[in-house]
Design brief:
With 795 residues, the chain is an alpha+beta fold. It is built from 20 helices and 44 strands. It has a ten-stranded antiparallel beta sheet with strand order 1-2-8-9-10-11-18-15-14-13, covered by helices on one side. Helix 9 runs antiparallel to helix 11 and helix 18 runs antiparallel to helix 20. The longest helix is centred in the middle third of the chain and has 21 residues. The radius of gyration is 28 Å and the shape is globular. Bound molecules: alpha-D-glucopyranose. Alpha-D-glucopyranose (GLC) binds next to helix 8.
């Protein structure tokens, strides 16, 4: 079933049926002031942390309530509706609506009985508050008197848990007042004189219309035994001017307007966490309501500029919508928001996960290398001087002065008592991709602090990461898994070994080899050669019955043994055997063919199979999940990205695209009732056939899937493979694609790449031209580039 469509021209996803199978969300602002909004205006807002800086209440495990509601009542008939379909849920035969999720804004166009509304929600650039902008038009033939009411449900404590479960405390610190067209709420307001920093101030104000009545008390607004669809205050058409003293605060502001036929009125609600004096200034800055339209224009230009560096035109509409807008936007959202907050996680974690963050960077390097570099340096400054990454990098990260796993203070604050084996390994492809994209090889010489003490060049930071792995090698000469490798559910400890990690290590050594050559570091080159030889020998022993095993348990037995009853084939070692450059063509093909026959489904390949149930080993923590779910044999979407890349590296464009299509949100647009999740953003995993809900997807927006599939697409399918000196072009596309075009900014030069495939190939080239000059092969040296370049790639 289809609930909406992609409006590529406006970079919007338009939801035409508001009864989506789950709340379909969008992100506004950034975590300094963050807001999540669904297609029925559900969602919440916070300052800095979804868990500790909450302004708006939202009930998890409920269906999308409450939200940023605007009610409109016809003063004569008393009939009322909301400007988004929810919460009032008018009969859709009479109530027409569409929700347009755009780049950091969401608009609702609705109409009911000749009253047309357009409501746009956004956070102005560089601001810490949000705007709900309403244009209401009377398209009837008679003059209408309308009661318009905005409703915001404040939390009673910035700490989400206290607000939700500790009512014997949080109810009694909250109060509201009404002043200057605003409801002002304070929590812990009594401490104003004694401990002013502990007071939280929130405001909800109305711009460009006079408040007629108000309520600062949630129960008074709703009325007993009612809900958001029929608040007493709305039914009566007048709020009771009651304020809250203890109990639940809210901001409800009502205004009455008179609209002649064809007349439009513009007004806006503003919400934020600011003292009354600051709030008043903010409100005053909108004296001219048209400021709103300027802000919206600026916001759109800002976001469009972020998408400018990479655009495609291919025969696949879905692919184009994702790459030119939604997938790239998703990558920026994960890059900016990390795992801060969503509609299924309130962001309790007080920092950045190391591997997630280093991976997220990979999704935006081709779009915004400058921002990527800044974040890479930040993550290098969160590397401990033993070479490992800090499992959790606190939001208050202070390089050079941090505690680390094993220190009691760190364990207590972060809940991470041990290192994870893979964290720092993700630095290698990320740093390499950054240097490839920019040519900034000097970056290797930049000096960056370690998280605890000391400092080093980027090059030496990377050597340290290698050293950490070297110091954690097991009996079979493979790296041990410690608290986890990429798979958070594999606790292999100090004895169990991981082939996935071993391939990452191999990949890292290859990258270091290139860097060491640049630096004429002969001694290190020798060292790498030796280590790789040993690793080669061991990894060769890990190929059994057409697949690479997943590793060794602490007792030395095999994980992913073809003879095992459960989990006898795992996806990641197969794709990483190829990506790392370890597996030769024969083994790569065999392993990936087995993946296709054993793990592929119509929604992508499973992480392993069969899921654990009765035969798991103690370190296999995924056994806790239902079969076919999450790490226990679901279609783990991040892993699709590596598979797409691996198939592309083998030149099997049809396969690569088959996996792309299966896991692409846009390709599921007609399948909303099965996918459940939004068709315009990625999720962490999709339930596999073992589940009762095969195809249902979860953990929207903030997931490593976005960046990893982006790499699979950009480097893999589209074949943009930069190295230190230039760009290799090696697309692996569906053989049915006759042509495609890529516009890419590369090292500040513009490339327009045309790929012609008249012979229905999947990969490979016949000839390649740069500015009409035929090249020797498919490699473009940076020094041959002009400001604007025409590249023709004939397959
Ligand atoms: C989740 C975690 C990520 C981990 C993955 C596999 O997506 O955020 O860090 O690698 O699960 O366990």
């Amino acid at each position: 079933m289809k609930y909406g469509y992609f409006d590529d021209i406006n970079h919007e996803y338009v939801i035409t049926n508001p009864k989506t199978p789950s709340p379909w969300a969008n992100y506004l602002g950034d975590p300094n002031y963050g807001a999540i909004i669904s297609n029925n205006a559900g969602g919440y807002s916070f300052v800095k942390s979804g868990a500790n800086g909450r302004i708006l209440r939202y009930y998890f495990n409920s269906f999308d309530e409450p939200g940023r509601y605007i009610y409109i009542q016809d003063n004569k008939t008393k009939d009322f509706f909301s400007t988004s379909w929810g919460p009032v849920h008018k009969d859709l035969k009479k109530y027409k609506t569409e929700c347009r999720h755009g780049l950091a804004y969401t608009s609702f166009n609705s109409s009911y009985k000749s009253i047309y509304t357009k409501t746009t929600y956004y956070v102005p650039l560089n601001s810490e508050y949000e705007i709900w902008y309403l244009e209401v038009t009377n398209k009837s033939k008679e003059t209408k008197k309308l009661n318009i009411t905005g409703y915001a449900e404040f939390t009673n404590n910035s700490n989400y848990e206290h607000d939700m479960v500790n009512l014997q405390y949080s109810l009694f610190i909250s109060k509201t007042q009404y002043k200057d067209n605003m409801i002002i709420q304070t929590t812990d307001g009594n401490l104003e004189k004694l401990r002013p920093n502990d007071v939280s101030h929130r405001f909800f104000g109305l711009i460009n219309s006079k408040v007629n009545s108000y309520t600062g008390d949630k129960e008074k607004f709703l009325g007993p035994y009612r809900n958001y669809s029929n608040p007493i205050g709305i039914e009566k058409g007048k709020l009771d001017n009651e304020l809250n003293y203890c109990m639940n605060s809210c901001g409800a502001l009502n205004t009455i307007i008179t609209l002649k036929p064809k007349q439009t009125k513009k007004l806006a609600f503003v919400l934020g966490m600011k003292k009354a004096s600051e709030a008043k200034k903010i409100m005053a800055s909108y004296k001219d309501i048209e400021v709103v339209n300027k802000e919206l224009k600026d916001l759109k230009s800002y976001w469009l500029a972020k998408l400018e560096n990479f655009k495609v035109k291919t025969p696949s509409k879905e692919f184009n919508s994702m790459i030119n807008t939604w997938h790239s936007y998703n990558c920026f959202i994960t890059f900016i928001w990390s795992r801060a907050a969503s509609l299924i996680y309130c962001g309790l974690r007080n920092g950045y996960g190391y591997r997630d963050t280093v991976q997220d960077i990979q999704g935006v390097i081709h779009l915004d290398p400058k921002a990527a570099k800044e974040r890479i340096s930040f993550m290098l400054s969160a590397q401990v001087n033993n070479g490992a990454g800090l499992p959790l990098v606190k939001y208050t990260h202070n390089p050079g002065h941090e505690d680390k796993p094993g220190d009691e203070s760190y364990n207590k604050e972060t809940g991470h008592p041990e290192y994870r084996a893979d964290d720092a390994m993700w630095l290698f492809p990320t740093v390499y991709k950054y240097i490839g994209e920019t040519g900034d090889i000097k970056y290797l010489d930049e000096i960056i602090l370690y998280s605890n003490e000391g400092k080093d060049s980027v090059y030496n930071h990377l050597k340290k990461a290698i050293e950490f792995t070297e110091n954690n090698i097991g009996k079979h000469n493979l790296p041990v898994g410690l608290h986890a490798d990429w798979n958070d559910c594999l606790r292999l400890g100090k004895l169990g070994e991981s082939t996935f990690l071993a391939f990452q290590y191999y990949y890292a050594l290859n990258i270091m080899e290139e860097f060491a050559k640049e630096k004429n570091d002969e001694a290190y080159l020798k060292h790498i050669k030796k280590v790789k030889e040993k690793l080669d020998e061991e990894l060769n022993k890990c190929f059994k019955d057409n697949r690479f095993i997943r590793g060794y348990k602490e007792d030395g037995t095999i994980i992913g043994d073809p003879k095992d009853k459960e989990a006898n084939i795992w996806l990641n070692p197969q794709s990483f055997a190829v990506i790392s450059g370890f597996a030769d063509h024969k083994r790569s093909t065999k392993a990936l063919n087995l993946v296709h026959s054993r793990l592929n489904t119509k929604y992508g390949a499973k992480l392993m199979d069969p899921p654990y149930f009765a035969h798991a080993f103690p370190g296999a923590l995924q056994t806790t999940y239902n079969q076919g779910i999450k790490e226990n044999g679901s279609i783990f979407n991040q892993a699709q990205g590596w598979l797409i890349l691996a198939e592309s590296l083998l030149g099997r464009g049809n396969r690569a695209f088959e996996y792309y299509k299966e896991s692409s949100p846009a390709y599921q647009n007609e399948n909303g009732q099965i996918r459940v999740m939004e068709p315009y953003c990625y999720g962490q995993f999709t339930e596999s056939e073992k589940s009762l809900h095969f195809g249902r997807s979860h953990v929207h927006w903030l997931t490593g899937t976005a960046s990893t599939i982006m790499v699979g697409v950009v480097e893999g399918i589209l074949g943009m493979r930069p190295d230190i000196y230039g760009l290799r072009i090696a697309p692996s596309i569906p053989s049915s694609w006759k042509k495609l075009e890529i516009d890419k900014v590369f090292r500040n030069k513009k490339l327009h790449i045309r790929i012609i495939n008249s012979n229905n190939k999947e990969s490979g080239y016949k000839e390649v031209y740069l500015n009409k000059v035929k090249l020797q092969d498919n490699y473009i040296n940076e020094k041959d580039l002009k400001e604007n370049n025409e590249i023709l790639y004939v397959m």
